Amino acid sequence: MEGLMMMRPLKIADLLEFAASNFLNGEIVSVRTEGDIHRTTYRETAKRTAQLAHGLLRLGINVGDRIATLAWNGYRHLELYYAISGIGAVCHTINPRLSAEQMLYIIHHAKDRLLFTDITFVPMLEKLSPQLPPDLRIVVMTDRAHMPEGSLSGLLCYEELLEGQPDQIDWPDFPEETAAGLCYTSGTTGNPKGTLYTHRSTALHAMMVGISLLNVLQAGRRILPVVPLFHVNAWGLPYAAPLTGASLIFPGPKLDGKSLFDLMDRKKVYSAWGVPTVWLGLQAQIKAEGRNPEGFADVVVGGSAAPRSMIEAFEKSGINVCHAWGMTEMSPIGTQGNLPIEAHSLSLEERVEAKCSQGRRVFGVDLKITDDDGNRLPHDGKSPGNLYVRGNTITSGYFNDEEANREAFDAEGWFKTGDVATIDENGFLMITDRAKDLIKSGGEWISSLDLENVVMSHPKVVSCAVIAVPHEKWTERPLLIVQSGEDGDAPQEELLEMLSAHFAKWQLPDDVVYVENLPLTATGKVSKLTLRKQFAGHTLSDPA
Ligand code: ADP
């Protein structure tokens, strides 16, 4: 027997409408590429979004058209999120840190019709222009006074697109499965692959994030997404914030420690979200200032493993760390590490230990770990296996990419994450490594993440990576690469001695090299692919 309840399609436009009518004090504060600080409200944003939607319709945009954005975190980018999906088109966020080749690949692959860009990226587009699709129109996200002069012809001006348009709109009806957003992975192996979100998956994800991070997502709280809108929709914040009434503080292009500290201090940011590398800069600034930014109480760290030393430093200074895990293909949040209330009685050390795990699954995401033959492994906290996921916010197939889809799912339809993990009896997920980053030495696996975690706790180490170097006898051996701080290098012997306290001799790196900077991926993670290429021919000084 079927139940008797209405079926209304879940739609992204409703999230903003909800905020506009409920959260009058909800703010959106943006550091603009023009240089100043801009403030607005959800109500005002809803009006400008309606104007933008009318502008898009006037340009002939139809349901299903892909509209690209090449932009920092700011209010115009947020308006685009809602206007594009509101009319049934697809908001395709492009990561400006991708290589020119990858960027061109995805613009052509997505068949973008329009491209909205911040002023910052106009010179880059000028260089790419001979290879851009000839019918791609470019809109610069600024007003007439700031429109750039240059070689690109036919540039449209964002503010002019809105000018004179009605600030109300009846959003069209369409099924909730309609495509709403498109985000490509950074393509560390092969071409980038596109995840095509729906209105349903996006609205559900907003609700899941909202209830999972209740401690920060509330009206009156100010959230700083340092994670860019082009990195999996800033982990859902442009949707979860309006749903819950939390205010958004958009940092614009400057993401160094000092700029972040100053902005957070001035705007009394309660919670800031980003990958570990951005927190290295902020923590250095906190140390230099001898205090936290005013009002700062919570940090969400994800995208790659948060080092233990980073978690400890935040927790020690009274900042709650939520260590989260997810993927582009998962909208992205899969697990989050806020501890239950009873954990407040834990000692600092116990809390830090618990937070080194990636936390527990959010409602709606199922997890399983298997051996290489696909047999399920127990959730006992000590059996590492291939991690698979399933749920309403997880991709059912990459956009127009049959080849990638053949490999992406198991026979039961679960999505293969490519991560190796354990899950304990209380549901805590611990990522051991990315499968491709594990080091296979003499038939045994060594986790690069575990080694890095210990090395990061040395005060002279700013960042580090352990990678596999090919080895004749052992297949692969670990090489430790260290980026040192102002106090000079941590001696190799000290690092190995620290590691010896935690690992067997055969698991220790055979060599340590010191570099000025570790290469980063387009999403700000240490690029092990680059390092593996760079050190492929490295001769180990002390072959095992
Ligand atoms: P990209 O590789 O393009 O940045 P994603 O952001 O989707 O794409 O990367 C997802 C991957 O990042 C995961 O499969 C996992 O390997 C890694 N990851 C994300 N969060 C964490 C975390 N908290 N701890 C360890 N690894 C993480």
* Class from helix and strand fractions: alpha/beta
Q: What name does the CATH topology of the domain at 438-534 carry? A: GMP Synthetase, Chain A, domain 3
Major sheet:
7 strands, mixed
What is the annotated CATH architecture of the domain at 438-534? Answer: 2-Layer Sandwich
Calculate Rg over CA atoms. Answer: 23 Å
Shape: globular
Q: What's the CATH class of the domain at 438-534, please?
A: Alpha Beta
State the fourth-level CATH superfamily of the domain at 438-534: ANL, C-terminal domain
Low-confidence stretches: none
Tell me the β content. Answer: 15-25%
Give the strand order, joined by hyphens, for the main sheet: 2-1-11-10-12-13-14
How many strands in all? 26
Number of helices: 17
- Mean pLDDT across all residues, rounded? 95
Bound molecules: adenosine-5'-diphosphate
Helix content: 25-40%
Determine the N-to-C terminus distance: 67 Å
Task: Please provide a brief summary of the model.
The protein is an alpha/beta fold and 544 residues long.
Which characteristics define this entry?
544 residues; 26 strands; GMP Synthetase, Chain A, domain 3; 17 helices
What this model shows, in words?
This protein has a domain at 438-534: GMP Synthetase, Chain A, domain 3 (2-Layer Sandwich), CATH 3.30.300. Helices cover 30% and strands 24% of the residues. The chain has a 7-stranded mixed beta sheet with strand order 2-1-11-10-12-13-14, with helices on both faces. A 7-stranded mixed beta sheet has the order 7-6-5-3-4-8-9, with helices on both faces. Strands 18-19-20-21 form a 4-stranded antiparallel beta sheet. The mean pLDDT is 95. The chain binds adenosine-5'-diphosphate (ADP). Residues 185-186, 188, 232, 302-305, 323-328, 332, 358, 417-419, 431, 434, 521, 523, 525 line the site of adenosine-5'-diphosphate.
